[in-house]
Amino acid sequence: MSLLNILAHVFTGLGALVLFASGLGVFRMPDVWNKMHAGTKATTLGSILFLTGMAMLKPEWTPKIFLILLFVVLTNPVSSHALARSAHMDPQEKPDNLEIDDLHGEEEE
Amino acid sequence: MSNTYLAAVLALVGGGIFLSFLRLILGPRATDRAVALDTTTLISTSLIVLISVLEGRSILLDVALVYSILSFLGVLAIARYLDGGLK
Fold first, then answer.
1. Taking CB atoms and an 8 Å limit, are A20 and B80 in contact across chains?
2. Minimum distance, in Å, between the CA of residue B87 and any CA atom of chain A
3. Do A86 and B79 touch (CB under 8 A)?
4. pTM of the entire structure?
5. Distance, in angstroms, between A29 CA and closest chain B CA?
6. Which residues, at least 6 apart from A41, have a Cβ–Cβ distance to it below 8 Å?
7. Which domain does B16 fall in, by range?
8. What is this model's ipTM?
9. A24–B58 CB contact, under 8 Å
10. In this structure, are residues A46 and A19 in contact, taking their beta carbons and an 8 Å threshold?
11. Is the pLDDT of residue B84 over 50?
């Protein structure tokens, strides 16, 4: 077994672990902000690790896998930002200790 | 990849999809469901890449790319809808 193959196994295993942790976090966390924390950041890290491991396993497919990886890294923050904004507009999801709220303050005037 | 290791990786990724999909079904509010949908589709993208590497069919990589694009657009549309539409 070559070094690249061993590294591919390590990266794939770590990525799978992080992806599972992200799913578990989305299932277990109490409110939408905690769920978002687990569901958007951990999937980015998990996808990076997992797809890097896959690219090491099949070196001839690296460009295509890198394209998927680049797309995930570019779009995941955008979608999580949109989700956070939509959750902020939901009055029932408002945290108790939030004192200064500029986004809502503008809407109410 | 050895069989045991492969089974462990598949179980972990599949378990992640299962748990977040459960949250997608159970989720008390619409925003929870939207977050769960985002997570489910992103983990599924990794699973599709894993299947394509195992089967040795590179066409499935295109499927994974299109799947991630469509999931991004879908989540964005749902988030903007919950936000109150385009203003």
1. no
2. 12
3. yes
4. 0.88
5. 10
6. A80
7. 3-83
8. 0.89
9. no
10. yes
11. yes
* Nearest-by-Cβ selection for B19 from A27, A50, A92: A27
Number of structural domains chain B divides into: 1
pLDDT 10s digits, A17-61: 999 999 999 999 888 888 888 888 999 999 999 999 999 988 898
A65-97 in b/e form (b: 16+ CB < 10 A) is beebbebbeebbeebbebbbebbbbeeeeeeee
The CA distance from B15 to B23, in Å, is: 12
Hey, are the CB atoms on B31 and A86 less than 8 Å from each other? yes
User: Tokens for B26?
Assistant: 């159970």
